[in-house]
Write a structure and sequence with these properties.
It is a single chain. The protein has about 45 residues and is mainly α. It has one domain. About 85% of the residues lie in helices and about 0% in strands. The protein has three helices and no strands.
Length: about 45
C-alpha cells in the first residue's frame, strides 16, 4: 500500500510540473503568457 501512495505522489508531482503554467495561471489569476515570460526570465539567469 505504501508503494501505491508513493507512486501517486510521484505521478502527481510530474503532472504538476508538466502543467505548471496553466496551474499557476489559474491559481494566481494571471494570463498564461505572463507566467510563461516570468519562467523564461528565470531560466535565462
Amino acid at each position: 500500500m505504501g508503494w501505491f501512495i508513493f507512486l501517486v505522489i510521484v505521478v502527481g508531482a510530474i503532472a504538476a510540473y508538466k502543467y505548471r503554467v496553466p496551474l499557476l495561471a489559474k491559481i494566481l489569476g494571471q494570463p498564461q503568457d505572463r507566467i510563461q515570460r516570468a519562467i523564461d526570465r528565470k531560466k535565462g539567469k
